[in-house]
Write a structure and sequence with these properties.
The chain has eleven helices and nine strands. The protein is α/β, with parallel strands linked by helices and 296 residues long. The protein has two domains: 194 residues, Spore Coat Polysaccharide Biosynthesis Protein SpsA, Chain A, CATH 3.90.550.10; 82 residues, no CATH class. Strands 1, 2, 3, 4, 5, 6, 7, 8 and 9 form a nine-stranded mixed sheet that branches. α10 packs antiparallel against α11. The longest helix has 20 residues.
Length: 296
């Protein structure tokens, strides 16, 4: 069975990167590829670039309600059996679409495929490999190990489980993967580099870490009825990093204080692991203050 592919690129003022994004899609050499760019009314050179490629893709440039809304508009405007979502500063690597298309066509029971990816800089240089794991639903609750541009899914999932949550501004992709996982959708891991996820000064999640982790905690509470300790600690770190400290111990104390407050806020309790952390930090302070020992 031959399947068609739709790639959706949400865009807003990424003119310095979007041409590389577009070229990475069009160079995949996929017959009848449906490529759609949903731009949010960019005021830079984005529209000029889109006009340059308008015979090879479809595009619209108009005000929207954010990234999730833009992706949803693209989902509604496209028809491919397989969906790829590639942000306007990310790229596909050669043969990415062919490899996932082949797997989907051979295995009708696979609904979502994800692969490895690199973090890249503004010049496409590789910074590091994105942390990815083989499929583990329980681990997904603690860490988002799926790199969004390296994820592809069947359109039938949209019909079954809906589109992205437009109330979310930072973790709309993570929420969608978790929503599918909790509904026992079959995920399939491909151990190949499929995409590059760009890290640069204007990357939304880099500049808003506290807001990101608050949104993740709210999302976890909604889906799981609790927030895992790991996300509470991540939130504690994000909060602590908004201040400078004289020493490592003061930083650790602040992280733990914010983590405990977050646990009370979202979970209405403190876990045994968190209590052990409190006792361990208390011992460090006792050793430093009364015994003159440097904390290990």
């Amino acid at each position: 069975m031959t399947l068609s592919i739709s790639v959706i690129t949400p865009s807003f003022n990424q003119g310095q990167f979007i041409e590389r994004t577009i070229q990475s899609v069009l160079s995949q050499d996929i017959p009848d590829l449906e490529y759609t760019v949903i731009d949010g009314g960019s005021t830079d050179n984005t529209v000029d670039i889109l006009k340059k490629y308008q015979t090879k893709l479809r595009w619209v440039s108009e005000k929207d309600r954010g990234q999730a809304h833009a992706v949803n508009k693209g989902l509604q405007a496209t028809h491919g059996d397989i969906i790829g979502w590639l942000n306007s500063d990310d790229i596909y690597y050669p043969h990415a679409l062919k490899s996932i298309k082949h797997i989907f066509e051979k295995h009708d029971n696979i609904d979502i495929i994800y692969g490895n990816a690199y973090h890249i800089d503004s010049n496409d240089n590789i910074l590091e490999t994105y942390y990815t794991e083989t499929w583990d639903k329980e681990l997904l609750k603690d860490v988002c190990f799926l790199c969004q541009p390296a994820v592809f899914f069947r359109r039938r999932l949209i019909d079954q489980f809906g589109m992205l949550n437009e109330k979310l501004h930072y973790c709309m992709d993570y929420e969608y993967w978790l929503r599918l996982a909790l509904n026992n959708v079959k995920f399939y891991f491909v151990p190949h580099i499929l995409a590059g996820s760009r890290l640069h000064a204007d990357t939304k999640t880099l500049g808003s870490r506290v807001k990101v982790h608050k949104e993740i905690n709210d999302m976890m509470k909604l889906h799981l009825k609790y927030v895992p300790d790991r996300w509470l600690k991540n939130y504690g770190h994000a909060m602590a990093e908004t201040t400078t400290y004289k020493n490592k111990l003061d930083f650790e104390k602040t992280v733990l204080a914010h983590t405990v407050l977050a646990s009370v806020k979202w979970n209405k309790k403190i876990t045994k692991d968190m209590l052990r952390s409190i006792l361990g930090l208390s011992r460090k302070y006792f050793q430093k203050t009364f015994l003159g020992k440097q904390p290990s």
